[in-house]
Every structure is written in structure tokens, then in C-alpha cells.
């Protein structure tokens, strides 16, 4: 039930608990996550032309991703509430059939912001789906993953 850092989500009786990070030093921590929404080429073109009846898909999804990152601790059990110093979400249409999403979350604290970056990407992707589902129910959210994290005891990590 323990891991090499000694931090665990289980108490001595095996019950799930929030990890106690009080002994860890505060450091600047940054995480970058990516994902994409794959859709019919006609759906991507409709997004580009601003033809979705619900409004600016990419703008709304960007805002939703930022808001999602800020509420991560409410969505993910046992996740620490963090004071985020910065959240950036970028959505880029990629021909012929996808919107690429990248989120960067930053804090100075005792635990990392990987979950916040991943949540931002997920919420942004689901917002794209929600806003476009009337014309394309076959869209797919794919490849949501952490690609970079820095700070804390483990330092820099980058996906291969």
C-alpha cells in the first residue's frame, strides 16, 4: 500500500485517505497535458467557420478547461485543492479532422498540478463534444495524457 516516496492514499487500516503533504516543501510546479477531439472533417470546418449554433466552440472550450482545472479537487476524489497561479488552455484545429488541446497548469505548493492539467484538457475536450454533438455524434476524445511535469522532489519528467 505504500510507494517509494512513502506517500500513500491508504491509512494503516487500508482505508482511502488524502495524502498528508504537510512535510513536503513548497516549490514551483508546472504540468502540461495534451489530448484531442477527432471528428468528421465537415464538423471541423463548421467549427472553423463559426457555424456551430451554440457559439464560439474553441473559446467556450478554452474557458471550460480553465474552470475545470480550478475545480479539480471537487471532481477527483482525494485530490488536494491547490491555489493555481496560472492555467493556460490552447485549442488548435488540425486538418483534416481534429482539435488538438494543450493545457499548462502552474502553482507554488507542496504537491503537483498534473491532475489540474489533465482535467483542463478533459473538460475542454468534452465541451467541444457537447457543443458539436448535434452534428457529429461520432466524435472521439483521444490521447489525453501528461506530457511534462516539473518541480517537487522528482524534478523534471517528460513523456517519451
UniProtKB/TrEMBL annotation:
InterPro entries: MoaC (IPR023045), MoaC_bact/euk (IPR047594), MoaC_sf (IPR036522), MoCo_biosynth_MoaA/MoaC (IPR050105), Mopterin_CF_biosynth-C_dom (IPR002820). Substrate binds at residues 78-80, 115-116. Keywords: Lyase, Molybdenum cofactor biosynthesis. GO terms for molecular function: cyclic pyranopterin monophosphate synthase activity. Residues 18-152 form the Molybdopterin cofactor biosynthesis C (MoaC) domain. Pathway: Cofactor biosynthesis; molybdopterin biosynthesis. Its EC number is 4.6.1.17. The active site is at residue 130. It catalyses: (8S)-3',8-cyclo-7,8-dihydroguanosine 5'-triphosphate = cyclic pyranopterin phosphate + diphosphate. Gene3D superfamilies: Molybdopterin cofactor biosynthesis C (MoaC) domain. Pfam families: MoaC (PF01967). Homohexamer; trimer of dimers. Catalyzes the conversion of (8S)-3',8-cyclo-7,8-dihydroguanosine 5'-triphosphate to cyclic pyranopterin monophosphate (cPMP). Belongs to the MoaC family. This is Cyclic pyranopterin monophosphate synthase. It comes from Pseudoroseomonas ludipueritiae. The gene is moaC.
